[in-house]
Amino acid sequence: MSSYQNLPYQSVTFKGSHNSYDRDESLYDQLVFHPDKPYNCGCRGVELDIWRHSDDPGTGLFTVSHSGGGGPDLSTYLASLLSWHDTNPDHDPVWVTLDIKSSNGDKTTFPDQIDGYLTSYFRTSLIFNPILLYTSKSRSLCENVELTGWPTLGDMRNRFIFCLSGNEDWKSYYANTNQQGCLCFADMDRPDDESNPDVPTTGSRVVINMHIYSDDHDKWAQSIPAYSTKNLLVRVYIANGEDLWNNAQSAGASLIATDKVSNYSWAEVSNDAPFAQRSTFQTVNQRQVAEAPQQMIRLLSKDSA
C-alpha cells in the first residue's frame, strides 16, 4: 500500500499499543514498522496513563503508571518519542493518548499545566494541534471536521497528535477552554452497545473512545460507521483476539489498541504498511476543501523537523 500517504487521516485504520509504558517492547521499538513482519510492532498509536502532582512544578508534575500515581516522569516517554522522531525523518503521524488517571486537585489549572509541560519537554512545532483543523474559526471543531475532514497522512508527516482521555471532568474542561489555542485533542467516551448513537455534529471533541466487547459486536459494528460519516476518529480498545481485531477493522475503527503488540500474525492492518484504508469513511466534498484558507496549508507544509 505504497500510496497511503495520499489518504486523509480520517480514512485510515492503524494499530495502537494499549498501556504502552507497560510492554515487553520499549516505546521506541513499538513504533518500528517491520515490512517482513508487519504484525510485529509497527504501532502508529501509543497510550500513556498520566498522574498529576501539582506540588512538583518540574518533570515530576506528571508521572506515568496504571495506578497509584508513581512511575517515571512523563518527560521520559516524551524523550523517547523525540528520539524516534530524530532517527526516522519524514515519519508517519503518531497518535499519543494521554489517559488521565488523576482525580484530585483543581481541574481549572490542568489545561495550562499539561500544555506547559508539553511545551517544556517536547517540541511544539511537532504537535498537530486542533487549530490546524479550523478552516472556519466561526464554526466549532466538530463542524469543521465534518465539513473538510483531516489532512492527508503525507501532510501530517513528522507530527504527533496528543489526545486526552480518561478523567471526563478534566478532559471536557480542557476541550472547552481555548480549543483554538490548545495543544491537545480530547476524546469522548461512548459505550459499545449503542447501535444508533447520538453522533455529535458540533462542539470541541472529534474523537470517540470505545472499549469494545465481542458480545456487543452487532451494536458497535453499526455505531462506528455512524461516527465515520462525520469524519470523527474512533479509537477502540482492547482488541486482544483475532476475531475482535478483524471485526474492529471491518467496522472501520481508526485506531485499534491492543496488548498483542508482537508475535500475533493477525495483529496488523495491512501486509505491507502501517496504515490501511478505513472500511467506512465519507469522501469530503472537494469544493469545501478548496475553500480552506491558505494559512492552514502553509502551517501543514512548513518544515517541522
From TrEMBL:
Could you tell me which Gene3D superfamilies the record lists for this protein? Phosphatidylinositol (PI) phosphodiesterase
A GO molecular function held by the record: phosphoric diester hydrolase activity
Record GO biological process:
lipid metabolic process
Give one Pfam hit by family name: PI-PLC-C1
Q: Which PROSITE patterns match?
A: PIPLC_X_DOMAIN
Supply the InterPro entries for this chain.
Answer: PI-PLC-C1, PLC-like_Pdiesterase_TIM-brl
| Family annotation (SUPFAM superfamilies) | PLC-like phosphodiesterases (SSF51695)
**What name has this protein been given in UniProt?**
Phosphatidylinositol diacylglycerol-lyase
Q: Which organism is it from?
A: Spirosoma aureum
